[in-house]
Amino acid sequence: MVIDWSDGNKSSLYSLWLRDHCQMPESRNLDNGQRLFSVKDLPSNITIEKAYKDAEGNVCVMFQPENHLSVFCQKWLRENCYELNSHFEDRSEKSKKLWKKDSFDNGLPFISYDLMHSDDTSKVLALRSLREYGFFVLNDVPTQDGQVLKVISELGFTRETNYGALFEVRTEVNPNNLAFTNLGLGSHTDNPYRDPVPTVQLLHCLESSTEGGESILVDGFKAASILREESQENFLSLANTWINYRFSDSKTELRSRVPMIDLNDKKEVIKVRYNNRSIDTINVPQDKMRSFYKAYRHWSEIIERDELKIQFKLSEGDLMLFDNTRVMHARTEFSKSGKRHLQGAYSDLDGLYSLLNRLEMKNNND
Ligand code: OGA
Ligand code: ZN
Fold first, then answer.
1. Within 13 Å of residue 52, how many CA atoms lie on the same side as its CB?
2. Residue 337: left if φ>0, alpha if ψ -120 to 50, beta else—which one?
3. Is the shortest distance between the CB of 219 and ligand 1 below 6 Å?
4. Residue whose CA lies nearest to ligand 1 atom number 8
5. pLDDT at 222 (0 to 100)
6. Global model pTM greater than 0.85
7. Which residue puts its alpha carbon closest to atom 1 of ligand 1?
8. Sequential DSSP letters for 136-150
9. Among 196, 246, 323, 365, which is most buried by a count of CB atoms within 10 Å?
10. 314 in contact with ligand 1, CB cutoff 6 A
11. Closest Cα to residue 22, out of 9, 36, 4, 43?
12. Residue to substitute in 161, 166, 169 for testing ligand 1 pocket (most ligand atoms within 8 angstroms of CB)
């Protein structure tokens, strides 16, 4: 079926697609809009017998051999016809604002936790910052034990792991992770050994009286785009090479095999992973090993470039929340004197984006 839109656009819609997207009560549940049939229930030799506009301007389509009439409203067709709506929000680099150290002319996205409670505007601001830049920092979050979980509950859902619902980030004796020492940590994404990876990470600063221990963030999508600009070959090598990751302690044995750069069907970046601490034995065919290491070294060199890093010190009460599939985090080494105590937790983008979508829909309707 061909539609000539009044704005000059044209859509050509495949007959089986149209039938599959029928919006009638026999095809969709009226309460929830979910489809009631499977594609295999439709005749494979489906044809459109006729299509016409009814008195209200709806588009009526008669399908054979079923003798099935579908009535589509024009608004639905315009919003859903696939030729004019080719960009689906799949969290790819295309829909993001990529950044470097000098990109924040108006300051970093630091938002008052108190304001977030007084009206939805600050919540929208924070969540948009997460969607566009991949992070935000809340100030003046009460420095109470477990507060990080309270913050998550206001935005989405906690992702519990073997580290617990929350984990303590402070210097420990015999730590099962280098994060629980005073050592500096290079830029990384957390938990690449988990499948699926937690897509949101939170770090809430409860105590901070050490020298050092500053936080660093790097936009991994920007780093990937620089890699692509400088060497398409290295970029594709990382996108096409699956790497083993592993976490192991006395109770846990986690393994995954994933590439460092995930692409969508349009070859746009949708996820990055980078964690030198938790790569397991690299198992790549011998004829690809040299080119893989060339690409891996190039990528790690870009990630550590100063011009990509924003650096700040979390003060007591600051809570940093970031997209763990995009933004890499690091910290500088800190002194043994003084105290540094963070509580960390994981959540997922789905819950936070769902809230943002709802708030944006509410704003549009107000
Ligand atoms: C972590 C981590 C950074 C910090 O716990 O995953 O990277 O600032 N910590 O201590
Ligand atoms: Zn980390």
1. 6
2. beta
3. no
4. 331
5. 98
6. yes
7. 179
8. EEEES----TTHHHH
9. 323
10. no
11. 36
12. 169
Backbone torsion region of residue 260, taken as left when φ is above 0, otherwise alpha when ψ lies between -120 and 50, otherwise beta:
alpha
Specify the residue with its C-alpha closest to ligand 1, atom 4: 331
* Residue-level pLDDT at 365: 80
Same fold, 2-80 and 93-361: no
Query: pLDDT tens, 180-232?
Result: 999 999 999 999 999 999 999 999 999 999 999 999 999 999 999 999 999 99
Q: Under DSSP, is residue 293 helix (H, G, I), strand (E, B) or coil?
A: helix
Q: Is the CB of 123 under 6 A from ligand 1?
A: no
Half-sphere exposure at residue 338, Cβ-oriented, CA atoms within 13 angstroms? 13
Q: State the greatest distance between any 2 C-alpha atoms of the chain, in Å, as a whole number.
A: 81
Determine whether the shortest distance from the Cβ of 331 to ligand 1 is under 6 A.
yes
For residue 188, report the distance from its CA to the centre of ligand 2, in Å.
Answer: 6
Q: Domain residue spans in the chain?
A: 2-80, 93-361
91: helix, coil or strand? coil
Protein residues near ligand 2, an ion, with CB under 5 A = 190
d(CA 86, CA 103): 29
Token representation of residue 258: 């994933």
Tokens of 167: 């984990």
Cβ–ligand 1 distance for 215 under 6 Å, the answer yes
Question: Picking from 23-32, 114-123, 143-152, 311-320, which range would have the lowest pLDDT averaged per residue?
Answer: 114-123
Answer CATH for 2-80 from 3.30.200.20, 3.30.70.2760, 3.30.2020.30, 3.90.980.10: 3.30.2020.30
Distance (Å) of CA 320 to CA 148, 189, 192: 10, 14, 20
pLDDT value of position 72: 98
CATH of domain 93-361: 3.60.130.10
Question: Rg (Cα) of the chain, in Å, rounded?
Answer: 25
Question: In whole angstroms, what is the distance from residue 327 CA to residue 321 CA?
Answer: 10
Tokens, residue 126: 């924070």
